[in-house]
Specification:
24% of the residues lie in helices and 44% in strands. The longest helix has 13 residues.
């Protein structure tokens, strides 16, 4: 699985709020850090699924856009922007951020680190976003 394929599958899982599909993208023993200051990562596919069930519970009408990934020469690391519009607890919000990813030889994620920001309303990205 390429970084782009992984990101596409991640976006689909998020839009469908499918924690099992998201978990299937993570390797055994993987680390998922949802915030830069998080000391305790979610571990393995089970941890990713638990995190996803928790955070997507209040989300609806989710639209995910992924920027073009920037990849290392060996394809084992990638970074990508994401831009998400949704209703969260009924409120229209936009969530934008970046993911830093490390993959195993099969294309499963061994480590995901993300940083993100929320804004009220359904906002559109600027003209150079995601490139």
């Amino acid at each position: 699985m390429t970084a782009q394929e992984w990101l596409d599958a991640y976006a689909r899982a998020w839009e469908e709020r499918d924690a099992d599909a998201a978990a299937a993208l993570f390797a055994d023993g993987s680390l998922y850090r949802d915030q830069p200051f998080s000391n305790d990562p979610y571990v393995g596919p089970e941890g990713a699924a638990a995190y996803w069930r928790m955070v997507t519970e209040t989300q609806s009408d989710v639209t995910v856009r992924m920027g073009r990934p920037v990849e290392s020469a060996d394809g084992r690391r990638a970074a990508a922007e994401f831009w998400v519009t949704m209703r969260n607890g009924g409120a229209e919000v936009t969530l934008t951020g970046i993911m830093l990813l490390r993959f195993d030889g099969d294309g499963l994620c061994e480590e995901l680190r993300e940083a993100w920001h929320f804004a009220e309303g359904l906002l559109e990205p600027h003209s150079t976003w995601g490139t």
